[in-house]
């Protein structure tokens, strides 16, 4: 199972990065969006990132084939364009019903050997595997934000994932330049099971008035050596995505205190303050930088 042709569904924060690292690894990539404006903005992000990587390589006296990488990425609004891909990675919004609907459609569209993967942060892989009608050919491939810089990919197998498919998915993670870790199909896999309750706990401190967001961030950066504090990180991940993760977990595990939803998060999302991508979350943002 050699993965050469890759489909990526969704060209947002994660999808554009997954498309890019797959192309950097030599794969032919087709990335699908719902509207031209979202496709254009995802492809523009790829162009910006490739230009940055080329500039950095030049500074170090090396080279980076930005144009060759970009030429391997095609954008489209037509989902049927992924029909003959070896692997399709889903990176659409964190909504299980919408993901299940998409996988049912992909199960009808794609050739019988296509492997399916979800980049979900929190939903059971087995649910989407069932919806696709191809449970043996289904894995979680959980990349981290920003995909171009973060070295990890979690490869999640269900009880039904075949050994060959799991090995092919792991090898694909390495092709993308990532170090894969094997995970079971448990809530949040490894990283988010630890990280999201930590982010939520920081927001509960804000709900109680224990400290300001800025002071909590400074404390965690200087006290623990983390590159970002929990509020900057939530802005980076997206408050809407973080809320969707917690809502899914609360529904499935109502008695788990670590998954309870902070008021500060609900209020910000209600006010459409989604973080870096909308220009404001716990902080104000100008493009990619904190204002
Ligand atoms: N492509 C190419 N280059 C990029 C880039 C991209 N997408 N993003 C940033 N860069 C470049 C920057 O331009 C910068 O270049 P210069 O040195 O020339 O200025 C360089 O990379 C370093 O970036 P920054 O200066 O912005 O800052 P940094 O050194 O702090 O590194 C970071 C940025 C790697 C994001 C670091 O802050 C970090 O590790 N933060 C934590 C991220 C994290 O925890 N991610 C996981 C989130 S959870 C998740 O993803 C799972 C989930 O399901 C929710
Ligand atoms: P995002 O909102 O930035 O991007 C989602 C994109 O999917 C949007 O551009 C939207 O137009 C598109 N989309 C929605 N429905 C679609 C469909 N049916 N077909 C094609 N495109 C569709 O979200 P994101 O942050 O990139 O998250 C994507 C997935 O990755 C989610 O499951 C999320 O939980 C997961 N994830 C997010 C992060 C993070 O830090 N944001 C990290 C790891 C995993």
Task: List the defining traits of the structure above.
291 residues, alpha/beta, Rossmann fold, N-(1-d-carboxylethyl)-l-norvaline Dehydrogenase, domain 2, 2 domains, eight-stranded mixed sheet, 11 helices, globular, binds acetoacetyl-coenzyme A, binds nicotinamide-adenine-dinucleotide
How would you portray this structure in words?
The protein has 291 residues and is α/β, with parallel strands linked by helices. Helices cover 46% and strands 15% of the residues. It folds into two domains: 5-184, Rossmann fold (3-Layer(aba) Sandwich), CATH 3.40.50; 193-283, N-(1-d-carboxylethyl)-l-norvaline Dehydrogenase, domain 2, CATH 1.10.1040.10. Helix 10 (239-252) crosses helix 11 (263-270). The model has no long low-confidence stretch (mean pLDDT 97). It contains eleven helices and ten strands. Helix 4 links the parallel strand 4 and strand 5. The protein is globular, with a radius of gyration of 19 Å. The chain has helices spanning 15-24, 36-59, 66-71, 96-109, 125-132, 163-175, 191-208, 213-224, 230-237, 239-252, 263-270; strands at residues 5-9, 28-32, 73-76, 87-90, 115-118, 138-143, 152-157, 179-184, 285-286, 289-290. The strands form two sheets. The protein has an eight-stranded mixed sheet with strand order 3-2-1-4-5-6-7-8, with helices on both faces. A two-stranded antiparallel sheet has the order 9-10. Acetoacetyl-coenzyme A (CAA) binds at residues 49, 52-53, 121, 144-146, 148-150, 192, 195, 227-228, 233, 237.
């Amino acid at each position: 199972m050699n993965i050469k042709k890759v489909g990526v569904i969704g060209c947002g924060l994660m999808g554009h990065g997954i498309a890019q690292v797959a192309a950097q690894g030599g794969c032919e990539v087709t990335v699908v969006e719902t509207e031209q404006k979202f496709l254009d903005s995802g492809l523009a992000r790829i162009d910006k990132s490739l230009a940055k990587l080329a500039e950095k390589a030049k500074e170090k006296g090396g080279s980076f084939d930005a144009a060759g990488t970009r030429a391997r990425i095609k954008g489209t609004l037509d989902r049927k364009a992924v029909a003959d891909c070896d692997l399709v990675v889903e990176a659409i919004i964190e909504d299980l019903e919408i993901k299940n609907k998409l996988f049912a459609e992909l199960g009808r569209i794609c050739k019988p050997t296509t492997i399916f993967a979800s980049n979900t942060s929190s939903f059971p892989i087995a649910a989407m595997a069932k919806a696709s009608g191809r449970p043996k050919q289904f894995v979680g491939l959980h990349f981290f934000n920003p995909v171009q810089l973060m070295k990890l990919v979690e490869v999640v197998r269900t009880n039904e994932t075949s050994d060959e498919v799991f090995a092919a998915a792991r090898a694909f993670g390495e092709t993308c330049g990532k170090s894969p870790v094997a995970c079971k199909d448990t809530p949040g896999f490894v990283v988010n099971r630890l990280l999201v309750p930590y982010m939520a706990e920081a927001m509960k401190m804000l709900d109680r008035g224990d400290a300001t967001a800025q002071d909590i961030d400074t404390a965690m950066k200087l006290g623990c050596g983390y590159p970002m504090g929990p509020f900057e990180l939530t802005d980076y991940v997206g408050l809407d995505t973080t809320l969707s993760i917690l809502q899914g977990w609360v529904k499935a595990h109502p008695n788990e205190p670590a998954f309870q939803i902070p008021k500060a998060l609900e209020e910000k999302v209600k006010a459409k303050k989604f973080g870096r991508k909308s220009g404001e979350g716990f902080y104000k943002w100008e493009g990619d930088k904190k204002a």
